[in-house]
């Protein structure tokens, strides 16, 4: 038997920065993405020719100047904002709107204030797992609430929770629907630095365990480096696109101390700050 002829080459696709990816590993594919907002002064092209491939189980952070179109891009991936041109695919399937394969965590978790933490998480779980028993759905919601450290607050009303605790519920709610992709729009932007650090650790711990793909917008360069496998830099708008991509090679699990003490840390930091300043 001619061994050579039996080897089937894994199909590959060209990605940004000329990297070639095995197509089977691509979770999220943004292809020639375009977004136009109609305004009284005429069309405003926020994004154009935006190409980005994100791999299965990858954690990608997105940075860029305020107003460049980060939230626009993320909300399009979530299916909450219409696509003006190009396409977005999850595992090769073009998205047509929101779906349980994509969970979203916003800066403000927008919980139902009159409902308990558990009821808020159950809202999504009940929708996504209608065939599970009530007990099974409760178990899922409680599991994730406990993972974010809210085991003593299942029955507390959302309105009575601190901002940090509300965001913990937001994280539990997003993971509990077991999405393939987690989309995070500055989820810790409104929190004090101690709570922020705690929630970063919780996020990474669950992400690592669930092996899902995460895409997170942040304005914080240190957060971008600490969390990511790759930091994606967007150019300033109008017609924003991917300007640069930085691979973060630190081993996981990471601690803040090990990252800060690593020789490459300041090299990465300088790269990102140079991009933002030019
Ligand atoms: N519905 C809309 N109609 C018209 N223009 C919009 C609309 N939504 C956003 N924009 C404009 O599109 C641009 C991109 O906004 P977007 O919120 O996506 O940016 P961003 O990078 O997330 O900003 P920030 O970092 O400040 O959150 C901005 O100039 C904004 O004013």
Give the strand order of the largest sheet, numbering strands 1, 2, ... along the chain.
8-9-10-5-11-12
Which regions have little confidence, pLDDT < 50, spanning 5+ residues? Answer: 1-10
Average pLDDT, to the nearest integer? 92
Classify the secondary structure makeup into a structural class: alpha/beta
CATH class of the domain at 12-101 and 179-277 reads: Alpha Beta
Terminal residue distance: 58 Å
Question: Residue share in helices?
Answer: 25-40%
Distinct small molecules bound, one entry per kind:
adenosine-5'-triphosphate
Number of strands: 12
Keywords: ATP-binding, Cell membrane, Membrane, Nucleotide-binding, Transport
GO molecular function, one term: ATP hydrolysis activity
InterPro entries: AAA+_ATPase, ABC_transporter-like_ATP-bd, ABC_transporter-like_CS, ABC_transporter_ATP-bind, NO3_transporter_ATP-bd-like, P-loop_NTPase
Pfam families: ABC_tran
How does this model look, in words?
The chain has 278 residues and is of the alpha/beta class. It has a domain at 12-101 and 179-277: P-loop containing nucleotide triphosphate hydrolases (Rossmann fold), CATH 3.40.50.300. Helices cover 35% and strands 26% of the residues. It is built from nine helices and twelve strands. The chain has a six-stranded mixed beta sheet with strand order 8-9-10-5-11-12, sandwiched between helices. The longest helix has 18 residues, at 193-210. Bound molecules: adenosine-5'-triphosphate. Residues 37, 39, 44, 46, 64, 66-72, 237 line the site of adenosine-5'-triphosphate (ATP).
């Amino acid at each position: 038997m001619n061994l050579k002829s039996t080897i089937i080459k894994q199909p590959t696709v060209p990605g940004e920065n000329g990297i070639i990816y095995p197509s089977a590993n691509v979770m999220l594919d943004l292809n020639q993405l375009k977004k136009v907002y109609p305004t009284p002064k005429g069309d405003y092209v926020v994004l154009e020719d935006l190409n980005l491939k994100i791999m299965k189980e990858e954690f990608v952070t997105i940075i860029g100047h305020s107003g460049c179109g980060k939230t626009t891009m993320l909300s399009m991936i979530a299916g909450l904002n219409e696509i003006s041109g190009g396409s977005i695919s999850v595992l090769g399937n073009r998205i047509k709107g929101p779906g349980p394969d994509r969970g979203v965590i916003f800066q403000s978790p927008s919980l139902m204030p009159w409902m308990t933490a558990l009821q808020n998480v159950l809202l999504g779980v009940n929708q996504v797992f209608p065939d599970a028993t009530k007990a099974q759905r409760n178990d899922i919601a409680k599991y994730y609430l406990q993972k974010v450290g809210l085991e003593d607050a299942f029955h507390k009303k959302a309105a009575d929770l601190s901002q940090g605790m509300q965001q913990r519920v937001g994280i539990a709610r997003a993971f509990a629907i077991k999405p393939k992709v987690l989309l995070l729009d500055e989820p810790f932007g409104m929190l004090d630095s101690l709570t922020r650090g705690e929630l970063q650790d919780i996020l990474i711990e669950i992400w690592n365990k669930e092996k899902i793909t995460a895409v997170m917008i942040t304005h914080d360069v240190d957060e971008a480096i600490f969390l990511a496998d790759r930091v994606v830099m967007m150019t300033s708008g109008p017609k924003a696109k991917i300007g640069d991509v930085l691979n973060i090679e630190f081993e996981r699990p990471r601690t803040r101390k090990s990252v800060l003490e690593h020789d490459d840390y300041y090299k990465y930091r300088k790269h990102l700050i140079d991009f933002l300043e030019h």
